[in-house]
Amino acid sequence: MPTACNLHNYILMSTAIKVENLGKKYIIQHQQQSRYQYNSLGESLSRGIKSLGKNLLHPFHSNTKAESAEEFWALKDINFEIKQGDRVGIIGRNGAGKSTLLKILSRITHPSTGRITINGRVSSLLEVGTGFHPELTGRENIFLNGAILGMHKKEIQRKFDEIVDFAEVEKFLDTPVKHYSSGMYVRLAFAVAAHLEPEILIVDEVLAVGDFEFQKKCLGRMEKAGNEGKTVLFVSHNIASIRKLCRVGVLLIDGQINLFSDIEQVISKYLTTSTPVNPCYKSKEEFRMITKQYFVNDASVLNSSENLCGTFHIGETINFKFRIKRGLLKKTMGGIKAALEIRSNDGLKIANIISSDCSFQIDSFDDQIGLLINIEDIRLYPGEYILSIWVGTLDSHETYDYANECIRFEIVSGGKLTTRNLPRNDGLFFFTPKWSTV
Amino acid sequence: MSTRQQIVITPYKTLGDSGRELWEYRDLFYFLAWRDFKVRYKQTVIGATWAVIRPLLTMLVFTVIFGRIAKLPTEGEAPYAIMVFTAMLPWYFFSNTLSESANAVVNNSAMISKVYFPRIIAPTAPLLVNIIDFLISFVLLLALMAWYRFQPSIYILLMPLFLLLAAITALGLGYLISALNVKYRDFRYVIPFIVQIGLYISPVGFSSQVIPEQWRLWYSLNPMVGVIDGFRWMVIGDSANIYWDGFFLSNAISLALFLIGYRYFMHTERQFADSL
C-alpha cells in the first residue's frame, strides 16, 4: 500500500529527535574521602580487601556497598519529540540537568535508561576549538578540528577558503596557532564550527559566554540555521536570546520535564518559578562534585559588616562572597579566572566584573577557595539585580561552571546619598559628579 | 532523502553500530594519526633522528654485552648485531605504540569530554606514526645487512604480516590499559615498567635458544617472544631454528590479549566522559 507507506515515511521524516524514557544516573560514593577524582588502584584494592574482610568476619551482615553509594538521577523520565525545522529552547535553573541532557544528545555520555532516535546529521557545539593543537598551523588545525567535528576531508577542502575568509586569518594560515592572539584563535575556531552543515544543531549557551562580538556571531549563525529550516536545540538562561531564536521550549526542573510547550508559555512559567530576592546561593554540591572540574559552591551578598543582606541603599558598601570548589573531574592544568555578571531584572547585562581585569590572580588551591569582591560605593538605581558567577580557564576558552542568576539583591531608595525618592528603573546608574559653572 | 542517517542512542551499543561509526569517522582516524606525525617531527628536529639513534645505540650496547662479553650464541649464520637489530625493530615498534596508545584516552580527554567520536580511534591512531618510525628503522636494517654483506632470507617479504602481529600485540594491551587508565590513574606508571622489564625478559639482546629447552614453552607465554622469533626467522631464514610450538602459543596469547583489550575498551568507553 503505497499511501500508507508514504504516510509512514512522512511521520518518520518529520520527527527530528525523539526521546523516550530517558534517564541518567550517577553513583555518588559517600565513603570516598579522597579529594582525588580518580581511584587509585591501590586504594580500590585495599577497599576491596577491607570489605572482603568485613564480609568474612560478619557474613550475615547486609551488603556494605548499599550504604556507601547513593544513586542520583540527573535526568529521569524524559520524553519529548522534536519536529524537523523546530527551534527548541531548553531552559532550567542550575543543576536542573540541562548540560547532562545536552551531553547525552551529543553522544558524549550515555544514558542509563531509555532511547533517543535522531534523524539527520547532528552537530553539537559545546565548545569551539576542540582538539586544536598549539604546535600546528592554522591551516592544519582547520583540517584537524573539522575532522573532530565530524566533517570529511573533501568537505573541509571544499569549504576551506570560506572558513579562512570568515576567520580573517589568511596572513597567519601557516603560523602555529600558539602564536595567535586569543581573538584570532576564537575566530578561527568558530569559523570551522560555523561551516558545519548539520541538519540538527545543538548549541550550549556557555559557548556564547565570551565577548559580545563573538556572542552576536554565534547567535546570528544559529538564527541563520533556523531560517534555513534546520532543527536547532539551544540551551540557555538568556530569556532574550531564547525568545528571539526559539519557537518551542522545554522547561527542566530537577531533572524532569516540567513543561514542553510554546516558548512564551515556557518562559512565563520559568519566570514564575524563579526565586525572589535571595542573597544566598548554595549549589547541589554532591552532583556538581562529579560533573564539574571546578564549580561555584556557594555565594552570598553581604553588607559592610559582612552580614548576609539582600537590600542596599545607593552609596552603601556591598560585598559579594563566593567559594570555588574543585570537583572530582580534574584534568586541566593552569590557572582559573572568575567573573561576576550583574543583570537588571529585565535581563540587561550591566556589568561583567572579571578577576583578571581587576589584576587579581586566583592562586592555585587544594579543595576550595573563598573570594570576596568589595564594592565600596554601589551606584545602581533602585531596582532588583541578578548576579551570575562564571568560572573558567584563564584564556576564557573553557567554562568550568556558570552559576547563572544565582543571587538576587535589591537596591532601594533612601540612604545618605539621595535627597529625593528615586523612581525604580528610571535609570541604571546614580552618578553624582561635580558640577561647576564655566 | 535516503541518505539521511538515523542515530539511535540507547544505554548499549551493538557491534554493528560500532563498525558503521568507525567507517563514518575514518577521516578523523587519519587526521589524528597525521597530527601525531606532524607534532612528533615538528617539535624536535631530533624527532626523526631519535627514531634511528635509539635502536642503533641499544643494538650496539647489546651486541657488545651479550655477544662479545657474555659470548652468547647468535641465530644461524647471522652476525650478532643483525640478530639484535632484527629484534630491535618489532620491540621499539611494540613499546612505542603501547606507551602512546595506553595514554591516548587520558591525553585526549579534552576532546572526549566535548565531542563525540568512536573512542577506539584515540588509542589506535598512534599506530600510524609508529609504522613510519618502523619503516625508517627497517631501511637501517637493510643498510646494516649490506654493511655485513649478509643476505636476508626470502621470507623477509612476509614482513607486513609480522608487523601486523606486533601491532595486534601492542594494541591489545594498549586498549586494555588506556581504558583502565581512565579509572585507575596509576596504570600510567605500569607502562614504563612493562616496557623496561619487557626489554630484558623478551629475547631482544639474545636469542631465545639460550633458554633451556624445558622452559621454552613457558617462555613463549610472553607474546613478544613469538613476534621477535618470527622476525628473526623472517630475516635470517630456516637456519634461525624457530621453535614453532612456542611461536603459535605466543600468537594465540597476542590474539587473546587483543580480544580482551578490545572488549574491555568497548565495554567501558561509555563511562569515559563521566570519569575523565
UniProtKB/TrEMBL annotation, chain B:
Transmembrane intervals: 45-66, 127-148, 154-177, 189-211, 242-262
Membrane topology: Multi-pass membrane protein
Top-level taxon of origin: Bacteria
ABC transmembrane type-2 domain: residues covered: 46-268
Family that this chain belongs to: Belongs to the ABC-2 integral membrane protein family.
Keyword Transmembrane helix applies: yes
GO terms assigned for molecular function: ABC-type transporter activity
Entries under Pfam families matching the protein: ABC2_membrane
Keywords for this protein: Cell inner membrane, Cell membrane, Membrane, Transmembrane, Transmembrane helix, Transport
GO cellular component, one term: plasma membrane
Main subcellular localisation: membrane
GO biological process, any: lipopolysaccharide transport
Subcellular location: Cell inner membrane
Originating species: Methylomonas methanica
Name recorded for this polypeptide: Transport permease protein
